């Protein structure tokens, strides 16, 4: 009986092995057939989409590539028509009430191409005004905000040797004539960007905001207002304006300073005169000084608070970021208005500065 046991075990193992192979084979067969069916279904969808687009525009199309659907974007294709290979447009697949709907941006892409040709025809006149084709990027581009509605913003970018920061008369007149050329030729442009070859600055005109602006004086007033409301330059202006007072408030144990970038002030909002009213401010302490062990920390914080309290016009919001290179974890961050929740600076330190 014992001699027969190994043989029985061998037989069982053979049977189990055969069953495993059969299961693996069945899984492989199902997978291959599924992949084959999916591929056939995908090709059928491709042809259905291609036929729809060709019928819609009356031209033969070629699929360049496609992107499979994910949690964010749906299934989409990039196509071009025969004879228009440089006009690559997108077709997206949507399902609405169990029906497949194809939407495309061909008309937007075509209009951008036609606007580019119009600008190229105007280049001799634009060059006389001091504008040239951009050294970086395209001259005419668009941002499609919503493919279902065709809502878009089209940009015109032209280089210039001027920075337009000083608003010289000749510079403003050139911009005014540029604005006139865009309108006279009915160019479908919403935003004009003029990067300077002198530096990294750029001047922008949003035509959607410029109804009724026609002469040089009005253009200059628009640029001044735009400059004042631009948060980046506003941050730089405010830092320059307040730097001397900030230096006087420093105690030697902290600096108004950001180790990651040149500006320690970041404007979040400005008033009508271009002054910051809402800002983020970076303060960097000497190593180990942002600590309850620093017996003069209350004096340091009071100096910081006093500096911001002295600024006019009065700031509505100050978001403070206090950094110490020796502290572990996140920087200490709080809004200046939160001081009202504490009876004293000493109490605030005990709550916020954990050693």
What's the number of domains?
Answer: 3
What is the gyration radius calculated from CA atoms? 33 Å
Helix content: 40-55%
Basic shape: flat
Distance between the termini: 78 Å
Derived from helix and strand composition plus strand pairing, the structural class reads: alpha+beta
Tell me what portion of residues adopts beta-strand conformation: 15-25%
- Major sheet summary line: 5 strands, mixed
Number of helices, counting only DSSP H or I runs of 4 residues or more? 7
List the helices and strands in order: HEEEEHEEEEHEEHHEEEHEEH
Mean pLDDT: 85
User: Got a strand count?
Assistant: 15
Overview of the structural elements:
This protein is an alpha+beta fold. It folds into 3 domains: 64 residues; 123 residues; 121 residues. Helices cover 41% and strands 24% of the residues. The chain contains 7 helices and 15 strands. Strands 11, 12, 13, 14 and 15 form a 5-stranded mixed sheet that branches. Strand 13, helix 6 and strand 14 form a beta-alpha-beta unit. Helix 3 crosses helix 4. Keywords: Membrane, Transmembrane, Transmembrane helix.
Topology:
Elements: H1 5-57, E1 61-67, E2 76-81, E3 89-96, E4 99-104, H2 106-128, E5 131-132, E6 140-146, E7 151-157, E8 159-160, H3 169-184, E9 191-195, E10 202-206, H4 216-229, H5 231-249, E11 254-256, E12 265-270, E13 276-285, H6 297-309, E14 317-323, E15 332-335, H7 345-352
Parallel strand pairs: 7-9, 13-14
Antiparallel strand pairs: 1-2, 2-3, 3-4, 5-8, 6-7, 9-10, 11-13, 12-13, 14-15
Helix pairs in contact: 3-4
């Amino acid at each position: 009986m014992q001699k027969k046991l190994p043989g029985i075990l061998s037989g069982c193992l053979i049977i189990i092995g055969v069953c495993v192979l059969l299961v693996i084979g069945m899984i492989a067969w199902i997978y291959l057939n599924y992949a084959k069916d999916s591929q056939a279904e995908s090709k059928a969808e491709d042809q259905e989409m291609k036929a729809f687009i060709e019928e819609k525009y009356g031209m033969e199309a070629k699929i360049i590539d496609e992107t499979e659907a994910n949690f964010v974007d749906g299934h989409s294709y990039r196509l071009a028509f025969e004879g228009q290979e440089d006009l690559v447009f997108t077709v997206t697949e949507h399902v609405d009430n169990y029906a497949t709907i194809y939407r495309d941006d061909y008309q937007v892409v075509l209009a951008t191409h036609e606007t580019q040709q119009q600008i190229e025809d105007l280049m001799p006149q634009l060059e006389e005004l001091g504008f040239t084709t951009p050294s970086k990027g395209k001259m005419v581009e668009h941002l499609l905000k919503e493919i279902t509605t065709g809502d878009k913003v089209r940009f015109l970018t032209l280089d210039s040797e001027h920075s337009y920061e000083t608003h010289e008369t000749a510079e403003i007149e050139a911009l005014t004539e540029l604005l006139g050329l865009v309108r006279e030729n009915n160019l479908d442009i919403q935003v004009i960007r003029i990067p300077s070859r002198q530096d990294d600055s750029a001047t922008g005109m949003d035509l959607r905001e410029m109804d009724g602006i026609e002469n040089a004086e009005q253009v200059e007033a628009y640029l001044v207002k735009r400059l004042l409301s631009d948060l980046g330059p506003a941050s730089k202006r405010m830092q320059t304006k307040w730097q001397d007072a900030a230096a006087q408030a420093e105690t030697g144990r902290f600096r108004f300073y950001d180790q990651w970038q040149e500006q320690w002030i970041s404007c979040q909002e400005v008033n009508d005169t271009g002054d910051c009213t809402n800002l983020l401010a970076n303060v960097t302490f000497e190593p180990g000084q942002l600590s309850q062990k620093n017996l003069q920390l209350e004096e340091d914080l009071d100096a910081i608070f006093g500096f911001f309290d002295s600024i006019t016009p009065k700031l509505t919001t100050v978001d403070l970021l206090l950094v110490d290179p020796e502290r572990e974890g996140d920087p200490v961050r709080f809004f200046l208005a939160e001081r009202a929740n504490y009876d004293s600076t000493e109490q605030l330190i005990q709550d916020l500065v954990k050693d």
